Amino acid sequence: MTSSHDESFRDAAGEMANETEVEVTPQGAASASAGTPGSDTTEPAGTPGGDSSAASTDEQPDADQPTDADVDNDTDTEVDELTAMKGSLADLTHDLQRLSAEYANYRKRVDRDRQLVADNAAYKALAPVIEVLDTIDRAREHGELDGGFKAVADQLERAVASSGLVRFGAPGDAFDPTRHEALSHLGEDAEVSVTTVKHVAKGGYTIGDRVVRAAQVLVVDPAAPTA
Questions:
Q1: Residue 128 lies in a domain
Q2: At 121, phi and psi to the nearest 5?
Q3: Which of 63, 177, 190, 222 has the fewest CB atoms within 10 Å around its CB?
Q4: CB-based contact 211:204 (threshold 8 Å)
Q5: DSSP letters along the chain, please?
């Protein structure tokens, strides 16, 4: 009896196992079948969402691109910098011109002072010779300058002339009070229109622009107009 009971139990268990396998298979198939459409519906749903995000990104302005206000500010800054550079250039040009003018004046002053020093040195060296030259002039006027004495006199006059001592004063020169000393007035002369040198007592001498000695002269005045 026990053996018969066991067999009945095994048969019942086998049937239950078969029923279990039959029920599981439809559920797995249904689950698998349900899973496939689910994945298919998920992908299409995601695609429009992705397109909407891309379109939204295209519509938004790029943060790196300058705005009109930024361009205006940059332009104003460049104009201000250019104006400042022009001002600095004008100041530098003015300073350069001023320095150039000061240097030119300095050179002129130095050259003038150098020439003055040279003239003073020549004056100190040649002033004593003027009296010797006066003696030569008087000898020439009286016809006493001849022979070897004449050769020496000519050589001396050339030497002092090359050193910068220049004689001036001759009959017919217009009287110049800065260069002539009038020893006497010889009256009027209808042939002259201004006071004129008639005779030279002693010649004058200059060194450069400096009058070493004024010429001592006799002068005539122009004739007074008749009534």
A1: yes
A2: -65, -40
A3: 63
A4: yes
A5: -HHHHHHHHHHHHHHHHHHHHHHHHHHHHHHHHHHHHHHHHHHHHHHHHHHHHHHHHHHSPPTTSPPHHHHHHHHHHHHHHHHHHHHHHHHHHHHHHHHHHHHHHHHHHHHHHHHHHHHHHHHHHHHHHHHHHHHHHHHHHTT---HHHHHHHHHHHHHHHHTTEEEE--TTPBP-TTTEEEEEEEEEETT-SS-EEEEEEE-EEEETTEEEEPEEEEEEEEPPPP-
Pull the structure tokens for residue 164.
């910068």
CA–CA separation, 31 and 22 (whole Å): 15
pLDDT digits (tens, 9 = 90+) for 71-104: 667 777 888 888 888 888 999 999 999 999 999 9
pLDDT in tens, 22-45: 444 444 444 444 444 444 444 444
**Does residue 51 belong to any structural domain of this protein?**
no
Q: Distance of CA 14 to CAs 4, 9, 23, 226, Å? A: 16, 9, 14, 180
Q: State how far the alpha carbon of 217 is from the alpha carbons of 27, 29, 113, 170, 194, in Å.
A: 155, 153, 32, 9, 15
Number of domains the chain contains: 1
Range of the domain at 124: 114-222
Q: Are 197 and 175 in contact (CB under 8 A)?
A: yes
| Look-up of token digits 């006497």 | 184
Say which CATH number the domain at 140 has.
Answer: 2.30.22.10
- Residue 171 within any structural domain of the chain: yes
Q: Which amino acid is at 206?
A: T
| Residue 89 counted as domain residue | no
